[in-house]
Fold each of these.
Amino acid sequence: GRIGDRFRLVYRHFPLREIHPNAEPAAELAEAAADRGKFWEVHDHLFANQDSLDPYHLNAYAAQFEIPGEGDESGRFEAGNRYADRVEEDFQGGLRSGVGGTPTIYVNGRPHRGGYDEATLQRAIELAR
């Protein structure tokens, strides 16, 4: 059976800056999109285009999804300190919780150690009730 309305998904950013230098500005763009009710739409687009998260493409995505921002002299999408602070808060919270990489999934506050396919996750959620 399905989980229904007793399920809530909470997404937190954990940009691995050393490995993926564009992950942080991409997360900031997603947060700017969230303020306009477009988080999942932009999130899904960013994940589908993980090889194209350079400043040029982030600016193009911001325009495509009508997410206003300012470009600095390098052309990097700049969503503002509010969004950078949100992403940093998520990252620090992840560190405090023992997150070391992505994806990391918690079910009812406990780290999920199984697979990420739908059936495995659904079973973990049902067992955690």
Note: The chain has five helices and four strands.
Amino acid sequence: MQILCVVGAQNSGKTTLVEALVGALGAHGRVATIKSIHHDIDPDTPGKDTHRHRIAGADTVIGLTPSYSFEITPGGKRAADSEQSVLVDTVERLRQRGYEYVLVEGFHDSSYPKIALGERENIEPPVVIRETFDSIDVAAVTNAIVEGRFGEQ
């Protein structure tokens, strides 16, 4: 499985690059994404059934719709030893599910290879590309990922 983080300052083009890479990598295998979110969000609507199940005390709530499934499990970053450990655990679950590619938006302090967009300085190695969004060649990055040039994870 190939794992690549896309990191950078706010509005540096991270999400747009992830979108482009998802589209390009999808022709080569299954792609999952992980997004670091710095504020709490509620992914299910208060008052609706999944929310009611969660509030009632279910450890995990899984919603199955005609087109999608989703899982809500308490914990997140605050319940883990560190952001790095929750990321590693999440990547391992995706590995067990058979994904070939995982794109991570954020987690600048992880040990996974990174594309750094813009001038942000406090990024832990390994940084495999440091560019602005406008100078990124999506086709070249896609080929490097598919060929495993950023390191097999």
Note: The first strand starts at residue 2 and ends at 8.
